[in-house]
Amino acid sequence: MGIYPDSSALIEIFDSNRSIEEYFLWLDQHPDGFVINTDGEGYQMLHKASCGYIRKRCGEKTPKGATQGKYYKIASLNVVALQQSSHVRGNLQVCRSCKPYGTHLNERNT
Ligand SMILES: [Zn+2]
Questions:
Q1: For residue 44, what are the CA distances in angstroms to 5, 19, 31, 67?
Q2: Cα(36)–Cα(84) distance, integer angstroms
Q3: CA 7–ligand 1 middle distance (angstroms)
Q4: Is 67 inside a domain boundary?
Q5: Are 94 and 46 in contact (CB under 8 A)?
Q6: Does residue 89 belong to any structural domain of this protein?
Q7: pTM check: above 0.70
Q8: How far apart are CA 42 and CA 58, in angstroms?
Q9: Which residues surround ligand 1, an ion (CB under 5 A)?
Q10: Domain tally for the chain?
Q11: What is the pLDDT of residues 27-80, one digit of tens each?
């Protein structure tokens, strides 16, 4: 496509192959990034990296649940690259709490 720098289009996978600390470090370092929470079996929810649902709640209830158990995370600074990633299959849900598309999408829809 060439409409964004390669570095911003990188897709990061945070699953049991990586430590939970790496995941939270990425969130801290990329507050403007985007994260898909998935179980790899059809559940895929897009969040902002700053969203409380992916930052703490999973981790507090089940200490390593955010990436080490049933669920894992797909992260990128570029939401388009994330949507088009081969890791995303089928229907992508959008978090109603953090509204990752912001007002931009709402403006286009009205
Ligand atoms: Zn969210």
A1: 25, 21, 20, 14
A2: 12
A3: 24
A4: yes
A5: yes
A6: yes
A7: yes
A8: 19
A9: 47, 51, 53, 95, 97-98
A10: 1
A11: 999 999 999 999 998 999 999 999 988 886 444 556 567 888 888 999 999 999
User: Tokens for 40?
Assistant: 């790899």
- For residue range 80-91, what is the model confidence (pLDDT) as tens digits? 999 999 889 888
Residue 25 has pLDDT above 60, yes or no: yes
Measure 34 CA to ligand 1 centroid, in angstroms: 9
Domain membership of residue 1 (yes or no) is: no
pLDDT at 66: 85
| Residue 59 Cα to ligand 1 middle (Å) | 15
Residue 9: is its pLDDT beyond 80?
Answer: no
Domain that holds residue 58: 6-109
